[in-house]
Design a protein that fits this description.
elongated, 3-stranded parallel β-sheet, single chain, alpha/beta
Length: 98
């Protein structure tokens, strides 16, 4: 059977702040790669100008929330959201782990 999703793009959506979402993304990415589907992963941003969204950023945001510095958290997530929505726009479909 012909691979109807050949060279399509997907964005891997799911929680990152309160639990590690990297494990399921790595598994799904490997499966999709074998099917020649491009997977955008927030842990591994595809563009040079993308904002880092890894463990260090999550820890910083958590510390800011504990200290009541919500304006810093808002600014950080505002920028992250813009980059994430850009990847969603470039995708043909999304895979979400809810």
């Amino acid at each position: 059977m012909k691979n109807l999703l050949y060279r399509t793009k997907t964005y891997l959506v799911g929680a990152m702040q309160y639990k590690n979402g990297e494990g399921w993304r790595n598994h799904v990415h490997d499966v999709l790669k074998s099917l020649n589907i491009i997977a955008y992963d927030p842990y591994h941003k595809p563009f040079l100008k993308d904002i880092e969204e890894g463990e260090d950023i999550r820890k910083s945001c958590q510390n800011w929330m504990e200290q009541g510095e919500y304006d810093k958290v808002q600014e950080m997530f505002k920028e992250i959201r813009a980059y994430d929505l850009n990847l969603v726009d470039r995708s043909d479909f999304i895979i979400a782990n809810i």
